Structures are given as structure tokens and as C-alpha cells.
Amino acid sequence: MLQVSTVEEMRRALDRAAGTVGLVPTMGYLHAGHMALVKRARSENDKVVVTIFVNPTQFGPQEDFAQYPQDPERDLRMLAQAGVDYVFTPSVSEMYAEGFSTHVLVDGISDKLEGAFRPGHFRGVTTVVSMLFNIIPADRAYFGHKDVQQVVVVKKMARDLHFRHEIVVVPTVRDADGLALSSRNVSLTPEDRNSALVLSRSLFLASDLYERGERDPETIRFAMMALLNAEPRVKLDYVAICDAQTLEELDRIEGRTVVALAARVGPVRLIDNVVLGEQRGYGDEQMHVSASRLPA
Length: 296
Ligand code: AMP
Known about the structure:
- The chain has helices at residues 7-16, 32-44, 72-81, 92-95, 113-117, 121-135, 148-160, 190-211, 217-229, and strands spanning 2-4, 21-26, 47-52, 86-88, 140-144, 166-170, 234-243, 257-265, 268-275.
- The protein is an alpha/beta fold.
- The strands form 2 sheets. The protein has a 6-stranded parallel beta sheet, sandwiched between helices. The chain has a 3-stranded antiparallel beta sheet with strand order 7-8-9.
- A hairpin with a 2-residue loop joins strand 8 (257-265) and strand 9.
- It starts with a strand and ends in a 21-residue tail after the last strand.
- The model is unreliable at 283-296 (pLDDT under 50).
- Residues 26-27, 33-34, 36-37, 143-144, 146-147, 170, 172-173, 180-183 line the site of adenosine monophosphate.
């Protein structure tokens, strides 16, 4: 596995590489969710590039950029074991030269949901992803469904700007008890982690209600809120029931529908989602909150 930290070295390495290339962009502090993307990329391409870059422009001034967890040595060990060919670990100054002033923004969708609570977040994401796409002209780029809005925004950007990369979406990986894996989970106290389980539980409840035939978003949201509000450590930002392609909120559930939420638990902000009628990720069997256990 070759680790490179400059754009120049990354380009030179890929110039010499033959066959198809899969790209997995990450912010490091890797877990099984990231590794599911790497595994999928490994199985579908001749060469796999993983990038590790904590991108400052996607964090707001009050957010956790300075505290974002890092363990580069462990990350490199995991990636070498997974058979990755190249790891790109640029510095902030390598990516953002002095006086940097160019941005990529996907209008509209970037302002909804996460964008409403994290102004500028998606502008930072699409700017850095377009840089990575320019540096690494891969055939496929792998993103996790855990960040569903990121997937929608990046797909739109890739289409609008004619990037060659096919965007491949990998299902959310969960802990056995249902919590969606996130690098930020390391900052949860045991109490906070326990409280945070209500997030996946409420999403699984939404899935159960859907499976039982419920198609009214308000009924589903109401049932979810009853669970979420019973957990005082969890400060909800939003619960959205929306079209999976556009993320427009729905009056009636008909096509492929995503239920997405965001909440703060202690100092940590977490997001999660499910697609109604589809697999929920690992751990769902253990954390099945049956709608039949709720009052009618
Ligand atoms: P991050 O390092 O958090 O920016 O994540 C890098 C990539 O891994 C993104 O495409 C995420 O959506 C994906 N990812 C993060 N957590 C998970 C998870 N639990 N399951 C699947 N993919 C994930």
C-alpha cells in the first residue's frame, strides 16, 4: 500500500496504475462502516484509493473540527489489511492553497435538512469532493447511505458537472444494538450512548409501522416523537419523512421513502436514516422495536 500526501504524488501514482479505480473518501478514524465501503470498492475495481482528510470547510465555526477524532496509524493498518492500493492523506494547506476562493455548491438541496442546521456544510462537502474527483479520476466513488443527503447532493453534483465517477451507495453499518457506526460515537459517554439508541429504535419503529401498512407520514412521525421525547438526553434537530431521490418532505408515502433524523446527544451530533421497506443495516434483528408493543 502506497501512502501519498501531495496532489502531485497522487496523480503520478495513478498515471502508472492500470485498470479500473475505486475511490473511497473518508475523514479517517475508520470503523466497520468505512470498511464496508472499502470492501465493496475492493471487490469491484482493480485499484482502490482511500482518502483521509478532515475537511475544515464542511465544519461550522461552532462545530467539532478541532476535536474530530484521529488515529492515522490505526487507519493505515486497517487499510493495508483490507488490500487498499493507495491512501491519500493531504494536509489542509495541500488542499486549500493560500487565498483559496473557489467553491462548488449544489443549489436548493444543500439548504434542506442537514443544510438548515449546518449552513455551509454541503458547500464544503461538494467543494472537497470535486477536488478529490479532479485529483483522482476514478471509475467509481463509494459513499455510505448513513449520510443520505450527502449521497443525494454528491450524485447531483457528479451529474451536473459531468464527473466521470459512478456514485456507488453502500448500506448503513450498525452496531449489534442498532446504533449506526460513526467516528463521533467515540465521544459518547456510556449514558449518552445508551440514550442514543433511541434514534435507531425510532427509525426501526417507522419501518415497522410502514410494514404494517401505515402510509401517513404524520402518524409515523407522531409515534417516533413519542419514543424520542421520552429520552431527555436526546435533543432532536429534525425528523424528516421524504422522497428518497429529492428529499422533499411527503404528505403521503408512496414511492421510495427515507426517514432521516438528526439529534444532539451530549456534545455529539448524530444522524441516521432508514429507507422504508428496505433492510436496516446490521444489528436490526436485536433492536427490533415492534409496533405491536405500542398502544394502538
Ligand atoms: P466520514 O469519515 O464520516 O466522512 O465517512 C466517510 C464515508 O463513510 C461516507 O461516505 C459515509 O457515509 C460512510 N460511512 C460513515 N459511517 C457509515 C456507516 N455506519 N455505514 C456505512 N457507511 C458509513
